[in-house]
Design a protein that fits this description.
The chain has 210 residues and is of the alpha+beta class. Helix content is 53%, strand content 6%. Strands 2-1-3-4 form a four-stranded mixed sheet. Strand 1, helix 1 and strand 2 form a beta-alpha-beta unit.
Length: 210
């Protein structure tokens, strides 16, 4: 008997949006066919189904397309949510995700690529990113281990890849900051088996038989 086809995930290993989609799929135990995309040479298959050709894109076996990382996360949790991430994703969690995606991400890009935005110094871009998300996040986590309270939820996974990017721009500076709760929150997730699994480099495609 032929196995049913798997959902097809177009992804890029280091993209924070793709990372959080893969985290949710892994957490939910949803198997997918992973298609790693070279951003400078996007496959025609992706260009055909998604004119924007951004990742992640999840194509379900019935043909339905999920074109946004949060939609993929919510779909995955609707399949299986063993630790009740959705049950703890309240309006406050939604505001954290909105703050990350709308306010913090543009500032993170300016900090990360400060040479492209010379109107301000890298330190000034960093300060804006700190004000937008990092400092409020650190303050909240100083009172509770997770954004959802005592246990992790969707917002923790959704913000993780972006805070990781921020920390990697100047890692020594980040580690020197008096934000132990935020640093612990970040490292706990980076050390988790789920994150290690979704960040594993995909195997190269097999060569066709001679």
């Amino acid at each position: 008997m032929t196995a049913p086809p798997l959902p097809l995930l177009f992804s890029f290993r280091r993209c924070p949006y793709a990372i959080r989609a893969r985290l949710a799929l892994h957490y939910a135990g949803v198997a997918v066919a992973l298609r790693e995309v070279a951003l400078r040479n996007k496959p025609a298959e992706l260009l055909t189904i998604s004119p924007a050709a951004t990742v992640p894109v999840l194509q379900l076996p019935g043909g339905q397309l999920l074109l946004h990382s949060l939609d993929i996360m919510l779909w995955a949790l609707a399949q299986h949510d063993p630790q009740d991430w959705l049950g703890r994703h309240d309006r406050q969690g939604e505001r954290w995700v909105q703050r990350n995606d709308e306010d913090f991400k543009p500032l993170l890009d300016r900090y990360k690529y400060a040479q492209r935005h010379p109107m301000l110094s890298q330190a000034a871009h960093r300060a804006q990113a700190m004000d937008a998300l990092i400092e409020p996040l650190a303050q909240t986590l100083s009172h509770q281990p997770w954004l959802a309270g005592a246990r992790p939820g969707l917002a923790d996974a959704a913000l993780l890849p972006f805070v990781r990017q921020f920390a990697l721009v100047q890692p020594e500076w980040f580690q020197a900051q008096p934000m132990p709760a935020l640093q612990r929150w970040l490292q706990t997730q980076l050390d988790s088996p789920a994150f290690v699994a979704v960040m594993a480099k995909p195997s190269p495609p097999e060569s066709p038989p001679a």
